[in-house]
């Protein structure tokens, strides 16, 4: 059976979709892109059949459909080990996963659309508080683990999560002054091609006024 | 250097701590237990030095301190592969991680204490809505992946996340009627010793009135 090209269901501004796009670039995989609006009411019945959670990203690959960005990135890592996104040393690998989970479970869900809608007028303040509180802890963690990037000098899953989260922080006008390590690593990563071509400003569904 | 016994910082009712306790039992590791109250204002400066995020669980092990339950469980898997908590087949492994992340990133953070405090009078309704919406999707996913347990017939990381989340659902009085697959798997898992001895009703800090 000829293998079909995987389909990535995503949305240009979704930070979780961006994580997967960076993984796609790093692994030199090529996905077809199916654009799904990030606004829940516009989700189609068709997409609900693809991903019952109706969230992006979702990846149709090798006959299965996966959701959850880190599960998708782990699958790419398991099936295409090079270049690796997890260090060989188990302790460093644990630190990579700790930082990734800290962002993916500890920060991003709290500033997600569904929560912000409930916050009404306090929306902006809530998002800023959640991100700042997460970044304070992350800054301390990175002071122990970072080299050029989040853990040592190799790009890892942690970096795939960091850059989209800093992008969100900037959208919510979080003061990045107290986070010099996060800021330095983010800048270094944005110089790499994989982070540039996957950037929200360069996707097929990016509106003209937001294009880089 | 003699290896010291790992220390698990946890709290009896924390669902994230429970995930790690089940992992500890499955891997036949023995952790010292450091009890940390689940209420933020009571967190000590000492614990902030252990885990800058001031969240449980945290594990001091092999000279490093890890936070984030799934990162901790992955570290146990990497360093003590048997009995395994991830299937050998990459597709099944991806399904395990998808289900685990769905709970850990997609459900639990939305009904976490910090969010509920913001919801005021709507607290209970909000928690129920988040869990129900997550369980609707999970029920559909499990219909494709489940055997005796979440993915096939082996206990996996997904199961370590499922049981504590159902426990939370019961605390928030979520109607479990629409989720027969979740209910069946949860019941089967609660018959296993690793899930029983790690149960919130049997921890050193469980109040007398909640003890099993």
UniProtKB/TrEMBL annotation, chains A, B:
Keywords: Phenylalanine catabolism, Tyrosine catabolism. Residues 4-84 form the GST N-terminal domain. The keyword Electron transport does not apply. It catalyses: 4-maleylacetoacetate = 4-fumarylacetoacetate. Pathway: Amino-acid degradation; L-phenylalanine degradation; acetoacetate and fumarate from L-phenylalanine: step 5/6. The keyword Metal-binding does not apply. Its EC number is 5.2.1.2. Belongs to the GST superfamily. Zeta family. NCBIfam families: maiA. This is maleylacetoacetate isomerase.
């Amino acid at each position: 059976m000829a293998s079909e090209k995987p389909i990535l269901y995503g949305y240009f501004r979704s930070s979780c979709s961006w994580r997967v796009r960076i993984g796609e670039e790093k692994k030199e995989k090529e996905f077809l892109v199916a654009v799904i609006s990030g606004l829940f009411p516009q989700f189609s019945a068709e997409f609900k059949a693809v991903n019952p959670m109706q969230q992006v990203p979702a990846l149709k690959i090798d006959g299965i459909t996966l959701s959850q960005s880190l599960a998708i990135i782990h699958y790419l890592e398991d099936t295409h080990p090079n270049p690796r996104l997890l260090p060989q040393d188990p302790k460093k690998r644990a630190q990579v996963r700790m930082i990734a989970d800290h962002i993916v479970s500890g920060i991003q869900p709290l500033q997600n659309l569904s929560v912000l809608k409930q916050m009404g007028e306090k929306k902006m303040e809530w998002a800023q508080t959640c991100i700042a509180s997460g970044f304070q802890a992350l800054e301390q963690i990175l002071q122990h683990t970072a080299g050029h990037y989040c853990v040592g000098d190799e790009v890892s899953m942690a970096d795939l999560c960091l850059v989209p989260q800093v992008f969100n922080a900037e959208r919510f006008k979080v003061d990045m002054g107290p986070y010099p390590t996060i800021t330095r690593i983010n800048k270094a990563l944005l110089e790499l091609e994989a982070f540039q071509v996957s950037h929200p400003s360069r996707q097929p569904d990016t509106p003209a006024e937001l294009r880089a």
